[in-house]
Structure formats: C-alpha cells, structure tokens
Fold this protein.
Amino acid sequence: MPRKNNETDLDYRKRVIDTKSKSWCAAKWYNATIWLGSGMTTSCHHPPAHHVSVEDVVKNPKALHNTAQKKKDRQQMMAGERPPGCEYCWKIEDMGKDSISDRVYKTVIYDDDDLDKAYLIGAETDVNLKTLEISFDRTCNFACSYCNPAFSTTWVKDIKNNGAYEGLKSDGRNHFTHTHDSAQLFKFKDTNPYAEAFMQWWETDLHRTLQELRITGGEPLLSGYTWQLFEWFTANKGKSQTRLAINSNLGIKRREVEKLLSATQNVELDLYTSNEAMGTHAEYIRDGLDWGEWISNLEYLLEGKQLRGLHCMCTINALCLESLDEFLDLVLAYKKQYGRSAINFSLNILRFPSFQSALVLPDEIRQKRGERLKQWYEKNKSSEFLHEMELNQLQRLIDYLDIVKTPHSESFELPKLRNDFKKFYAQYDQRRGKNFGETFPDLKQWYESL
Ligand code: SF4
C-alpha cells in the first residue's frame, strides 16, 4: 500500500522518503526512459539523457538501464546529496521546505517494501525496472514548437528543407540547427543491438517485473515496433501482467484509433495524449495538430470506455497560458460527463527550450495568467472530480509563475531568451505558414516590441 489512509503528499514524503535520505528518489532504481533508436537513457525523464554503450548491453541487457551514470546518481541520493541532473526537482524544493516535487510522485507509485528493497541493495546492484518508457524511433507526423529533430521526423524535414534556425543565442545544445542523425541510428528491421537487448530483457525478466511499459516516440503508432509488441501480447495472452501505456498525439485517422483498440483489447491500456491550450492556440504550438480531429478522437476513446485510463499531459509553455484555464474547464467537463478518472491531466513545466518557458513573458502578463489560474483553482478546488495530484500540480504552477524568475540554472539572461523567442517564432511562422500576432493578439504588442 504506497500511501496510508488520508496521508498527504507531505506526510508520505516524511514517512517514506525522508527516512531514507533527503534527496532519495525511487525513479533512479525502478524507472527509466530508454531510446532504442539512439541508445540513450535517463531516469526519470527529467534529467538529461546519456549514452548506453553497445558493448555493455551485448554482455548484459540490464545495462540498458543500470548505467554507470545512474549508479553514480544513486550513490549521491543514498548519501543525501543532489545529483545535478535532477535540477527539475531541486528547483521546486528550493521554493520552500514543504514544496512537493516530482520525487514524491515518482516514488509513491511503488510499494513500501519495494522501496525498502531498493534502498537496501544500494547503488551498484543491477535492478529490474518496474516502470519503463521506451521509444523505438522518432517517426512523427507533428513538429511541435517545443520539440526538435531528435524526436520528430517532421522536424527533421523542416531543417532539411529550410536549414538551421538562425540567430538563437540561448540554444547552447543546438536543438534547432541540424537534423540530429545520431537520434536515429537504426531503421525498422535493421539489426539494432539496443532493440535486441530490450527484447532479451523483456523475455527473461521485464515481462514479469514491469508494472507498466509506456511506449513513446515520435508518434509510436507510426512505428512498426509498437505493432510488433502488441502482437507479442496477443500471442502470449496472460503471460505478462504488465500494464501497457502509450503516448499518442492522437493526430491519427479514426481507423487507426480503431486498429489500436482492436490490437489491445486483451491488454490494460493507458493512453497519454498531449495538449495544453485550446483550438488555434493548440494548433500553433503543436504544429500538425488538427484540433477537431484531436477532440473527436478523444471523445471516441472516452465513449468507448475500453481504455484503463486516458491522460492529458500539458506542457506548460509561454503560449499555452492564454487558454490553459479554458482547457482545464474542458477536461473538467469531460470528467463530469464520463467520470472522475475517465480523463486526468498533469501539468509539466517546460524548461527546454528555455526561450519558450512561461518565465520569458513580461512580469505583468505572467502575473495576470497566474491570477487566472488562481481563480480557476479557487473556483474548482472543492470539486469531487479533481484528484489531489491535479490540484497540487496546479498550485505548484501558480507558485512557479509567482516565484521562480529564471527557467533553469544554465539559462541565459532574459534579453537573450526574449531575442530567441522573437527570432524563433518569426522563422517558425515563415516555415510553417503561421501568424503569431493573429493567433495570440494579447501578446502581439509585446512580441512586436522585441
Ligand atoms: S528529476 Fe526528480 S523525479 Fe526525476 S529522478 Fe531526479 S529526483 Fe527523481
């Protein structure tokens, strides 16, 4: 039983996590994101990804997750030190000693006994994962503004056709200047040592130990590997208790949604989709999205009631705040119509690219947006349809907009970020046939002054 009756997030942290160490987090042991197309991994999904050696995984498939970097991070957590890659959490925790970071949410999902086991085995021993997010390849039909060619073949086309985005000063990692060929070393059906190691580990251990396998992309429904994995579940019915989850932009035709439901009818499936704004705002931010198609697919899934859960991941960026409260109204309306847990939302604060962070906005606009979210919170905080985690994440966002002044510690000063905001969206408009000023009239004057 992860959480005792009526235990708040803070009570839980004090009882289960703080007694291990003041920086301990189960995600470093039991959770990973692994990109099989490039041989990269991280735990959880927040820290920067690092490379996995082919030699290591050929000898030991568990090395896909149990890398030297993660063992070093575990060591630090055991000693109560803060691994620098986990800055996402430290930044939230530094807002106040009772601030709840993702460290709590990424730990509370596991049983207390499993947490004690992880703590006792320490940093060095290889562990079998319990929750895994895996990407087979970067094939994707969208090219969202906050994504880049490492995760989307449509983004690759943008760079190939139009060249590098020019004049960006804060993008030290050059996300928008080249096609990131190292992100896709293997094509579907090529010999891929990482995909082979995953299948080997899956057959020996993971199909038993994994509580949840989440497939991400690109758009995973466009990957041949995803359909192969569905076939494994059909052919091996009842062999694995692993819950299956899939990230999908839901920018797919109805027949593809039907194909998905048919291929997974004997499996417990959670579907995670992304959106954080309404209508034209959403279509601007998530280039490739057809709002009507997205809504229609979402409602089809809600009506069908086959999914174990439907989740909406909101990536909080500078542009979504104009209609985020309306978007939350929409999700709440679906909850009222289909049930409290029929659809859930999470609010994930964007840090990279930093020039798209909400904190780039002028103070006055940012505070007004924060105020609207505060009003939404006050109006709905007693709703029986909202989960504690949803309310906590909203409160966290309100605090974040109010207190935190820089997007992350490596970020450059604000003038550089605003320069990049203007430079990026001017080129984005040209390449994608969009118009910033028409789409975001409330930001137009400020945008044109940059
Ligand atoms: S970023 Fe936070 S949640 Fe993720 S592994 Fe680090 S401490 Fe855990």
Observations:
- The longest helix spans residues 414-432.
- Residues 25, 27-28, 43-44, 46-47, 86, 88-89, 101-103, 106 surround iron/sulfur cluster (CB under 6 Å).
- The first strand starts at residue 31 and ends at 35.
- The CA atoms of residues 194 and 281 lie 38 Å apart.
